[in-house]
Amino acid sequence: SLWHSPELLSDIQDGYSVSGHLLVCFSSGYFIHDTLDIIFNHQSRSSWEYLVHHAMAISAFVSLIVTGRFLVAAVLLLLVEVSNIFLTVRMLLKMSNVPSPALYEANKYINLVMYFAFRLAPQAYLTWYFLRHVEVQGQGAFLSANLLLLDAMILMYFSRLLRSDFFPSLRKGSAGRDVDGEKFLID
């Protein structure tokens, strides 16, 4: 959507493209499906963070679909999915116990770059934009609050990733247990 219509970036509040609209609709369906999958497969307790994230995404995306405003912000937020590719590769490498640590090491650094480029940078830009240019009432206030909560979650996930891949000695608590539990992100 952004590739074919880069002019959208000049109007985050009211920019519109059919491909962007369809992307947000499709992504909303994915979040609804994944939420139901987590609930129906009794994974709610271990996946509560994902449920919170999905609830935030669904509510924000539905408001965007209904009002037609802030579509470009949603498309920018969906850039996060690019970095998920490398997080998933990381998880698969850990689960498969690949004997070659070089592959994991390479992915570790690529993952870090992608995290900055496709998670932290768009998130920081949108947070700055919303705090500076968006009204703090109605949908703007709702989306700003959603964005700030998402900021906290992304920074928490980033700190887990850094501790796990770059500072493993910081992972252990005083009782010798992992500080953050048994999550794939930090295992």
From TrEMBL:
Pfam families in the record: TRAM_LAG1_CLN8
TLC domain segment(s): 1-170
Gene Ontology CC terms, in alphabetical order: plasma membrane
Location in or out of the cell: Membrane
Entry keyword annotation includes ATP-binding: no
Its membrane topology: Multi-pass membrane protein
Major location (coarse): membrane
GO biological process per UniProt: membrane assembly; phospholipid homeostasis; plasma membrane organization; regulation of membrane lipid distribution
Signal sequence coordinates: none
InterPro entries from the UniProt entry: TLC-dom, TLCD
Keywords carried by this UniProt record: Membrane, Transmembrane, Transmembrane helix
Name by which UniProt lists this protein: TLCD1 protein
Name of the coding gene: Tlcd1
